[in-house]
Amino acid sequence: MRNVIVTGGSRGLGLAIATTLAASGYRALAIARSEGEALRSASAAATSAGQGSVHFHPFDLTELAGLGRLVVGLRKQFGPIFGLVNNAGLGTSGMLAMMRDDAIEKMVRLNTVAPIVLTKYVVRSMMIERAGRIVNIASVVSSTGYSGLSAYAATKASLVGFTRSLAREVGPLGITVNAIAPGFVDTEMTQELDQEERDRIVRRSALRRLAAPDDVAGAVEFLLSEKARNITGTTLTVDAGNTA
Fold first, then answer.
1. What are phi and psi of 187, to 5 degrees?
2. How far apart, in whole angstroms, are the C-alpha atoms of residue 18 and residue 41?
3. What pairs with residue 55 in β-bridges?
């Protein structure tokens, strides 16, 4: 059974990704600060289904000094790491001029620095195996812009540049690196939008709806599969046609 690390795997997109991967026969290693009832239920359901599995591992990704030990521990417990999905992130919104410096720093630490450092340690094991899949969860706002999300957009744009360059570095070893840019997905992160904003986003979308977490999870599953073996260094948009 192939091991795939999914950060932020206890809720929202991360939980949908972990659940989808387990249903496809992967062992999803869900990293989050706390487990939560939804993840416990998903883990139990995956075990009952008897295909793949979901395993929770508690860790605060902002503790950068411990990321190397985290990867070593996971490899000792489960074996080689085939995939890494860098999904965890803060969606802190607010006009830049009014944001606290420590809030900006915290968001950059979790959204940008943590996935880069975690990938550094995971990709080392992938290089030994000469195989692996890395998927970074970016956002359409990194290229389109959105008022009140300038700092967040900057962190997500950094992942796109990271994806393209790392794909060049590790491609000769058979490792693919791609990004997914979700639009406004119907999760807790978009619940802070008022109904007028949500309606405006839906009207602007070609399909007249918001994308769902399962849509993003399906894209991740595809990029991890053998069908995507010749896709690397690219960003796949999943936004119900919002940017069409």
1. -135, 180
2. 12
3. 29
Q: State which H helix or E strand residue 237 sits in.
A: strand 235-238
Q: Helix (H, G, I), strand (E, B), or coil: what is residue 173?
A: helix
Mean pLDDT on 1-11: 96
Structure tokens of 133? 């899949």
- Distance (Å, whole) CA 236 – CA 143: 13
In a 13 Å sphere around the CA of 166, the CA atoms on its Cβ side amount to: 26
Q: What percent of the chain has pLDDT over 90?
A: 79
Question: Among positive and negative, which fits the CA dihedral 56, 59, 61, 64?
Answer: negative
Q: What is the pLDDT of residues 67-76, one digit of tens each?
A: 999 999 999 9
Spatial CA neighbour of 216 closest among 45, 20, 35, 26: 20
Integer Cα distance of 108 and 158 in angstroms: 10
| pLDDT tens readout for residues 76-117 | 999 999 999 999 998 878 898 899 999 999 999 999 999 999
> Could you list the active site residues?
152
165-213 per-position pLDDT tens digit: 999 999 999 999 999 999 988 765 566 677 877 788 889 899 999 899 9
CB proximity list for 59: less than 8 A, separation 6 or greater = 31, 32, 33, 66, 70
Helix (H) or strand (E) holding 121: helix 114-129
